[in-house]
């Protein structure tokens, strides 16, 4: 496993991030403690140190399993990322949301479950459209100054909110968001409209969740293995089937799994990207780990891009059309690009 810098920080993390949303057997699915420990052993033995969880995953069981595992090992080796915002507590109106009170409460509870004195990366889990972004960043900065958190991060939030937050943090001397977690895959490319360009501008690393689209890009739905997926899911429509078939064709050509093709596509984009690979079985992770030795050709990338192309909407498509017009006038656009 190679290591990469996370965003504009000096924090070194493995080129794959282990997702632990499935650690625990609540809700009738997931990995029990022994299986979770086996997955963690496999990841760390491969050189992985970047692990993603959240306070809400399996109602806290994911964090508890991680805490038990890491407490008997070198804590400083691991880069633990967790999240706050969501919590199932109907008796406390401030037990959810992005507000400072919930953040501080959630962090204290996560520290206990994780059996650690500090969290390496703290994500805002999902934007609540209520809390001012300056309240979020000031509270995160206070936690960082206290040594309870090392770095600030954000997930599932509009690009304009993140941009406002990082600009404000730069102005005020607060810690900025260093990484952005969003759903991103060959079946979900809409972050290319605003979120990914914004992340590139601020030097943020993108950590895609569901880079395999819940397993759709492994080809399992083509084989009729629908599992828990709903029939109306967009991972089962004609568009997703067409894209998945292109993935499978390339996988067959290279002699690798379709999942490796889909994961590598995210890793070969023109921005800093560390996909989150979830697993509830050791065999699933073992297959995902093979991606570090995969390299897609320009032809492969073009085939996948064409199969999964989306409209950028306005102004993205307008800029694209404008570039074509400028090129038609003596290559002016090319000269501007080179400068």
The succession of helices and strands, N to C, reads EEEHEHEHEHEHEHEHHEHHHH
Q: How are strands sequenced across the largest beta sheet?
A: 9-8-7-6-5-4-3-10
The biggest beta sheet reads: 8 strands, parallel
| Form type | globular
- Helix amount: 40-55%
Low-pLDDT ranges? none
Please render the helix and strand layout as text:
Layout: E1 3-5, E2 12-14, E3 17-19, H1 33-45, E4 50-52, H2 61-70, E5 79-84, H3 100-114, E6 119-124, H4 133-146, E7 149-155, H5 159-172, E8 177-181, H6 195-201, E9 205-206, H7 238-254, H8 258-267, E10 276-278, H9 282-289, H10 298-307, H11 313-328, H12 332-338
Parallel strand pairs: 3-4, 3-10, 4-5, 5-6, 6-7, 7-8, 8-9
Antiparallel strand pairs: 1-2
Helix pairs in contact: 1-9, 2-3, 4-5, 5-6, 7-8, 7-10
Provide a short characterization of the protein structure.
The protein is an alpha/beta fold and 339 residues long. It is built from 12 helices and 10 strands.
